[in-house]
Amino acid sequence: MYRTQIQSFWTLGVIGVLTVLSGLAGALPCAAVAQEVAKGRVENVKVHGRSLDGNLSGEPTDRNVSIYLPPSYGRERSRRYNVVVLLHGYLRTNSYWLGTGSQGFPSVDLPRAMDRDVAGGKSREIILVMPDGDSKYDGSVYSSSVTSGDWEGFIAEDLVSYIDDH
Length: 166
Fold this sequence. Notes:
The chain is of the alpha/beta class. The protein has helices at about 15-20, 110-120, 150-165, and strands at about 10, 40-50, 60-70, 80-85, 125-130, 145, 150.
């Protein structure tokens, strides 16, 4: 599926990601795209979180993850891409990054913004990985907990391993 080796692994909160990707002007859903651009694709997969096994609150250990693959990905299978892991904030899900709304909050359409900015030469092609950290408590805070599971381990070990293997 996705052939990549992670050269740099960053986990960023909402503010950090919006700062790093500040060149993606118009990422909000209301922005109009003036020209037709090559489109990447988003794949939605389930990633088993071995680090989440045995959590006391019964959170599912197979987690939804959305992965944005850039336009050239399908034809340049041996190319290496940088990977950015985007962690949504509390009270949100991974759909926050996809422009589809997130539990009544405005969302950001990063796939469309990436497509436009890559086509315009403002950004290099990268892979965006967006795990769903929602829980019974409206968020995992990506911490290690016997109650809700080892979310830190899920992100840093299970998810990175999955991306490296695919």
